[in-house]
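Recall the central idea of this unit: under ordinary conditions, the amino acid sequence of a chain determines the structure it adopts. In this exercise we apply that idea directly, starting from the sequence alone.
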Amino acid sequence: MGPHPAVAAIRLAVRRVLHDILTAHPPLPVGAPHAPLQVPPYDSDPGPRPRTGGRPLPPLVFVACSGGADSMALASALAFEAPKLGVRAGGITVDHGLQPGSDARADEVAQRLRELGLDPVEAVPVTVGRGAGPEAAARDARYTALDAAAERHGAAAILLGHTRDDQAETVLLGLARGSGIRSLSGMAAVSGAGGRYRRPFLQLDRQTARKACLVQSLPVWDDPHNTDPAYTRSRLRHEGLPALEKALGKGVVEALARTAQLSRDDADALDTWARQAADSVRDATGLLECAKLYALPPAVRRRVLRRAAIDAGAPAGSLFARHIEEVDRLITGWRGQGAINLPGKVVARRQGGRLVIRQG
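Accordingly, the structure predicted from this sequence is:
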């Protein structure tokens, strides 16, 4: 008798991703040129180092685990599938320090990961800033810690437990902000530097992950922030999406996730077009020519302008659609208006038929 259907589904999703990782990061003979780190550096003594006996060193894959149902299901599937494929599997849990006892809870999660057979395992404390709102600040701190851990251990990839439900919420949040098609494309299955982050569960719903934990008797911690109405995503999860399903019928989550994939395909195509067009709209000195920019389709032109602003020093995370629209009016609605101030002390102005974007 095979595993429960929910367990089989999560294992299959992880197995497919591990195959992709092995294709991108095949084991290299010890001592081969340009091989990854043979023995990852450690900040403290984690116990025995990996031994290869002269055999190729397999890639290391981490799972980022909060202790919730999604990430615990992911950790269990990684622990089951990795040895079968010859992949080293480890775990990371991040202590955001936002709740009393969070350090002890992180240690508990780390111990659960070790009991699953993952090694190395780290519980990493972070300091969450306040600049971009609590949810964004916590996310930034978390990814900074995950990136650092991957570099520290020479990990090939980090698996994240985002589900189809998370994807639907992300699309709705982007829609509510009035964002463009890139925001509506949600989370990518592969993202980060060198494709570091992998999301195996984007085609699986949250209930499948929770059921997999239940039938395997995996302990699960439900973060109270996930039900706190002070957080936008929590309100959307517990009020917004149920209201949509009540009004429109079942299938809203699946439709939003499908919208994300279609939007991503379109956004990728437009980004490629914009990269190809960027050089053709510059003069011999590298300045953008307004007449050539005007001839581009708006979606392509705005991508060229956004990239030019970022290259000039504007922080990508602070550069919003309204900023690009103002710069775009220097091309499409020129009435002699003055310079446009952008984040990062970047200034865009029109001079002699050219668009000049630079700091200061």
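Residues 33-51 have pLDDT under 50 and may be disordered.
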